[in-house]
Design a protein that fits this description.
The protein is of the alpha/beta class and 171 residues long. The protein is built from five helices and eight strands. The chain has a four-stranded parallel beta sheet. Strands 5-6 form a two-stranded antiparallel ribbon. It is globular. It starts with a strand and ends with a helix.
Length: 171
């Protein structure tokens, strides 16, 4: 079973990520700074106390994990996750959920430049033109697939994914 660590698990986004991960059947480890705040988390979450700014507190959190979802707030800095259009609005892409992805800033940059894309089955495709394909693969989860949203109706539409592969992705 895949073990997912959610950093920032008691935050407004982190709580939702923990719920979705558990619902999808992932073993879910919730990294929290304050165990009392972990009461808001659903049953099934494994709570681990630690602080991402103090590496000496993270051993229990990171041991045996397969993926990390970082949901900590930016506190005035750059957002950790960004909404990305699959087919950009500038290319007549609609501003709707099925034409969107939630990506980290770095992955969003690579997606927009065609260095990565998604198959209709949400397999993460890495361009042969990437300068260091192995480093790119190191940034994605070890399943090689994007995690789908909880509601099937919110899943990226194959029409938009095909548009991205045909017009942006660099084979």
């Amino acid at each position: 079973m895949t073990t997912v660590l959610v950093a920032g698990a008691t935050g407004s986004i982190g709580r939702l990520v923990v719920e979705e991960a558990i619902r999808h059947g992932y073993r879910t480890r919730a990294l929290v700074r304050d165990r009392d705040r972990a009461r808001v988390l659903p049953a099934g979450a494994e709570v681990v106390v630690g602080d991402v700014t103090r590496p000496d507190t993270l051993a229990a959190a990171v041991t045996g994990i397969d993926a990390v979802v970082f949901t900590l707030g930016s506190h005035g800095g750059r957002a950790e996750a960004e909404a990305a259009h699959i087919r950009p609005v500038e290319a007549n892409g609609p501003d709707i959920v099925t034409n969107g992805l939630a990506l980290s800033g770095t992955v969003h940059w690579m997606f927009d430049r065609g260095l990565i894309s998604l198959s209709d089955e949400l397999e993460i495709l890495v361009s042969r033109q990437a300068n260091d394909p192995e480093s790119v693969r190191g940034m994605i989860n070890n399943t090689g697939r994007a995690l789908p949203p909880g509601r099937p109706l919110d899943r990226p539409h194959p029409h938009f994914l095909a548009w991205h592969r045909e017009h942006c992705f660099k084979l």
